[in-house]
Amino acid sequence: MVSNQSKSMPFIALTITTAICIIITLYSLSTGWFIIHQNLFYIPIIIACVYYYKRGFLFSILLSGLYFILFAATTADPALLQGAAIRVVLFILIAAVITCLSMQRAELATQLSRSNDELTATNEELLASEEEIRSHVDELYSAQQMITDTKDRYLALFEAAGDAIFLHEIDADGMPGRFSEVNERACESLGYTRDELLRLTVIDIAGEKAIREAPERMKELFEQGHAVFESDQKRKDGSTFPVEVSSRVIRHPDETLILSVVRDISERKAAEEALRRAEKEKTTLLDSMPIMLAYLNPDLTIRYVNRASADTVGMSQQDLIGRHCFEIWHGRSEACENCPVLRTLVSNRIEEGEVLIQDGRIIHQTGSPIHDDDGNIEGVIEFGVDITRQRDAEDALRLTNEKLQILSSITRHDILNHITTVLGFLDLAAGMSVDETQAHYLDRIKT
Questions:
Q1: Residue 174 region, left (φ>0) first, then alpha (ψ -120 to 50), else beta?
Q2: Are 24 and 50 a contacting pair, CB within 8 Å?
Q3: What is the pLDDT of residues 118-130, one digit of tens each?
Q4: Alpha-carbon distance 283 to 279, whole Å?
Q5: Distance CA 211, CA 202 (A)
Q6: In this structure, how many other beta carbons lie within 10 angstroms of the beta carbon of residue 408?
Q7: Helix residue spans in 235-386 (DSSP H)
C-alpha cells in the first residue's frame, strides 16, 4: 500500500503544480502582470521529466505550448511575445536536458541493481559450492556403508518377492542359457533346490509352448530390450502350469544377461475361463429369450442387444452396437415422443408403454434404470414384447362382442313381441268358458 502511494505521489504533485501554474498565469495575465509567474512552469516541467522521462518531455512541450497560447491571448506586444517564445524554447531545452539526465540516472540504477543481483547470486553459488564440497566429503565417507546396505536391501527384496525371479545367460546360438541367479520363490514354484536350479537352463524348465516360442521371444527381446508374454513352465515332477513372463535384457561390459520376473497365472486363467463360460451362458440365456432386450446408454445409443431384438430388423447384434434405438426401430432422427426409456431417464424408475415400430408391429416396452456406484443412471435396460397378435385378438374379440350385442338386442325385441302376443291371447282365453283342466294350464302359462 505504501509502495502504491509513493508511486502516485509524483502524479499528484505534477497535477497540483500544473493546475497552480495555469491558475496563477491566468490571473497574472488578466491583471497585466507579465513577469515572475512564468518561472512557476519550471516546477511541473522538472517533475514530469524526472519521473516520466519521454512522456514527461512530451508533457513539457504541451505545457510550454499552453503557456505561449495563454500569453498570446492576453497581449499583442511583439516584445512580450518574443520574450514568451524565448522562454518556451528555454522550457523545452531544460525539459530535454532533465529528461536525458533522468534516463541516464535510471539506466545507471538498473545496471547497479543488476550488478548487485549478480553479486548476490555469485555469493550464493560460492556458499552452495562450499556446502556441496562439505557434504561431498561426508558422502564419500559413508559411500562404502551405503553400498553395503543397498546390496543387502536389494538382496532381501530379491528373496522376498512374491514372483519367481530368474537371471540367466545367453548361449552362443542366441538361445536362453544357464541360470546365474534365482530367488527362493522360483525354487518353490518349480520344486528344485537353489543348487539344482542353478545347474539347469531355461529350456530345462520350459513347457512345450515355451520351447516352441523361444526363438521368437529371444528375437523380440534383442530388438526391443524387453518383452511381456504368456508361456508355460515345467516343474521338477513334470507337471506344467501357465505363467506370465516379464523379461528385460541387462547389458554389462563383460556379458549380457536376461532378467525375467515370472508369475504363476493358474488362478487367473481359471478365473478367465470361468468368466468366459459365464459370459457364454449369459449370452445363450439372453439370446434364447423370446422377448426383445436392449441395454441403452443415456444418449439412447445401443450398448447390447439380444438376438430377438436384432432379428426384428434383420441385422446382426454387432452391427447395432453404438447406433440409436430410434434410428433402428422407428426410422427417426430423434427420440420418440412418450418413449418409456426417456421417461425412465427422467423419473429414475421403471416405466412402461406401447410403441409402434416401423414394420407395423406393436411392442410393449419396459424401461428399467441401471445405476453406477454413486447412484447415478448409467444406462437403461429396455424389454420389449411383441403384442401385435394380442392386440389383433382383442380387436377381433371386441368386434365379436359388438356383433353379439346387436344380435342380442334384435333377438330380445322379437321375443318380447311374441310374448306380448301370447299374453294377449291368454287374456282373451281367460274370458272364455273353460273347464278346470284348461284353467289350470292357462295359469301355468301366465306364471
A1: left
A2: no
A3: 888 888 887 887 7
A4: 6
A5: 9
A6: 10
A7: 266-288, 307-311, 317-320, 325-330, 340-347
Q: At what angle do helices 42-74 and 78-160 cross, to 10 degrees?
A: 140
32 in the Ramachandran plot: left (φ > 0), alpha (ψ -120 to 50) or beta? left
Long-range contacts of 55-60 (CB under 8 A, 24+ apart): 56/95, 56/99, 56/102, 57/95, 57/96, 57/99, 59/14, 60/91, 60/92, 60/95
The Cβ of residue 260 has, within 10 Å, a number of other Cβ atoms equal to: 22
Question: Cβ distance 296 to 303 under 8 Å?
Answer: yes
Q: Do 175 and 203 contact (CB within 8 A), yes or no? A: yes
In whole angstroms, give the CA distance from residue 176 to residue 213: 12
Cα separation, 138 vs 367, in Å, equals: 73
Count of CA atoms in the C-beta half-sphere (13 A) of 333? 0
- pTM, two decimals, is 0.43
How many CA atoms, within 13 angstroms, populate the side-chain half-sphere of residue 111?
Answer: 6
pLDDT digits (tens, 9 = 90+) for 244-266: 999 999 888 888 899 999 999 99
Q: Is the pLDDT of residue 110 over 80?
A: yes
Name the phi and psi angles at 144, rounded to 5.
-60, -40
DSSP bridge pairs for 242: 232
**Cβ-based neighbours of 441, under 8 Å, separated by 6 or more:** none
User: Could you tell me the CA-to-CA distances from 363 to 18, 353, 354, 404 in Å, in that order?
Assistant: 89, 8, 6, 30
Grid cell 427420440 in the structure block, residue: 335
